[in-house]
Amino acid sequence: MSYATMLTIALPEIVLSLGALALMLAAAWGGQAAARPVCWAALVVLIGAGIALAGPSSSGVEAFYGLYRADAFSAYSKVLIYAAAGIAILMAPRFFERTGGDNLRPEYPVLILLAAVGMGMMVSAGDLLSLYVGLELQNLAHYVLASFMRRDTRSAEAGLKYFVLSSLASGILLYGISLIYGFSGTTGFDGIADAFATANSTGLTFGLVFVLVGLAFKIAAVPFHMWTPDVYEGAPTPVTAYFASAPKVAAMALIVRVAVEAMGPVTIEWRQIVIFASLASIFFGSVAAINQKSIKRLLAYSSINNIGFALVGLAAGTPEGVSSVLVYMTVYIVMTLGSFMVVIRMRDEEGRQIETIASLSGMSKTRPGLALAFMAFMFSLAGIPPLFGFYPKLAVFNAAVAAGLFPLAVLAVVGSVIGAYYYIRIVKTMYFDDPAPAFAVSGSTVENGLIAATAIAISPVAYLAIPALTGWSMAAAQALF
User: Fold this and answer.
1) What's phi and psi for 111, nearest 5 deg?
2) Residues paired with 353 in a beta bridge
3) Which of 246, 220, 243, 93 shows the shortest CA–CA distance to 155?
4) Does the pTM exceed 0.90?
5) Among 42, 325, 337, 448, which has the minimal tally of Cβ within 10 Å of its Cβ?
6) CA–CA separation, 119 and 74 (whole Å)
7) Range list of β-strands (E), 11-160
8) pLDDT digits 0-9 by tens, 48-71
9) Pairing of strands 68-70, 61-63
């Protein structure tokens, strides 16, 4: 295969890279005034990368000697990543303008584009080396994004915490990669799978554990979740919304690919780790969120809880299980982005950000439309029918039962019931408590449109999309098997 052909296969990443470089130059020349045009241009670049997926980039071939895989699974994941990244860019301009004019800088969308390049490499990785390069490219952009508001001490603290703990996780992951390479003699997923199938090596098992631990940090699965509440609370809200969506999809897709392709012959071994992380995340995320006073910290624990449910589908280790994970992550990012768009609207009359749950009191009377949308997001995150958040939970439970993991499904259902409490508590605060001071009115057509679109996407109307969603996700899942 020629280099021209291989570059064509990796066209989405090339589009993003060239777009990011061009916009970086535009940001340098245009300065602060170029922030909004660069944001809109970044959206065009993301759309272009998405269009590029329609060609050889989803044809099921390998490029760069096995380092890069362009299949239906990676294409599905990249569509979710690009969509979440685009919404995170759309959310940013008005937020940063209201927190201070100099906070809206054109580097923000450029960093997200560069992170999208890394996330694309992650979900297309066919080798531990390309996996690590993609992961670190994503992380380098994320360190800056977490501390993007330079004069905000909470943002600086969030960036520092994320940097330190992410570096630790990267070290653990590298150690696992070195063990696997040392005992298998290769870093390619196919060669690693052959080594696991033919050798009963303790060193390979230890390498498996360390790799999964390093990747578990990226999805904030318990017990590697400790960075999530502090970073979510301290980072600017659009950045928090981005952290809770696109990187979660990329990291989850990466874990699925590594588990199925590289470690498929030892499913029994890694299934035990996944089941523990799943149940621990579900129950810890449910219980720890109960006493939270900050809505951003509550949503951080909600993300931990939801990652636990997604891992239930992975534990099945079947095409149906992987398909359920993809469906779950699709619906999850819609619910999460919608919730954070409501949080962005939580401002007092002077434009200051409010993040306490108590400030939601009586919002049904002061902002009825916003309260209705937030109620839909909360009930959907809880998995309460008839909202669409119920369907992905049902899908992962069905996959677990079909794989013979009935106790796991039962315990996950119990955890779902516990977690529903804090979602319902928010609805009770909005609809039954005495009204708090009303939030400032926002005239943003973009924000209003995004909230309405995401609310419709998790309404009962979305059940009409189930045949298309399940068909696409199953085709993507079967690409791994």
Assistant:
1) -65, -40
2) 347
3) 243
4) yes
5) 448
6) 10
7) 61-63, 68-70
8) 999 998 878 778 788 888 888 888
9) antiparallel
